[in-house]
């Protein structure tokens, strides 16, 4: 793996041996970028920080778990430079909306192919003081030294499939030679629309962390993307005993066969992975 990468997992047991992970809270005062895949159950809530300072939030889960996590577990406060809603499904936006109502944020981005007031309140969206707007494929930012690029496979209502998962905004975060890619719930057909050549040019060697799409479902797995980006660690945000039977065992087996260490929130709880 590139550089010295410290993996920090909260409530880890068996995975400590497999991945040589270190349990610690030192990352909050340490240097480097950390990605927190919050255990929100069956949903997504991903928080990125650098040197103990907030950088970005992607989604917020289906309840208020992410809100509580940011307040109580990180101690980083609630003023987030960039917030991104991957797509308009309740297991991603309920906690996100709560955070928008309570926290301060700098920039909000979303794909409004199919978006209603449930996810982004009109009071937030229409407030001229807020930097809220529809994103576009390739939009990028540099926040506290972290490079962030957004990818939107389906930007237009024309040709947009009925499956809202494919409206997901994909986010790549890069700090030095440490990269994290979050796919939202983008399904395989949507992932096929990603320009993997452009993605690979942004990645130094193997991709460090891949947040697996759609909670490890078969329809969210792209063999081509995994083969091209060669992720080192694959994190699955998924609820314990969920009714969808996520994640799929064949997906896990294929990821492991491809050389990616699989970590699941339903097994280990909150996942924190840091660069050093």
UniProtKB/TrEMBL annotation:
The keyword Transport does not apply. The keyword Nucleotidyltransferase does not apply. The chain crosses the membrane at residues 6-23. Residues 39-225 form the Metallo-beta-lactamase domain. Keywords: Membrane, Transmembrane, Transmembrane helix. Coiled coil: none annotated. InterPro entries: Competence_DNA_uptake, Metallo-B-lactamas, RibonucZ/Hydroxyglut_hydro. Signal peptide: none annotated. It holds the Pfam family Lactamase_B. This is Metallo-beta-lactamase domain-containing protein. It comes from candidate division WWE3 bacterium RIFOXYB1_FULL_42_27. The lineage of its organism: Bacteria, Katanobacteria.
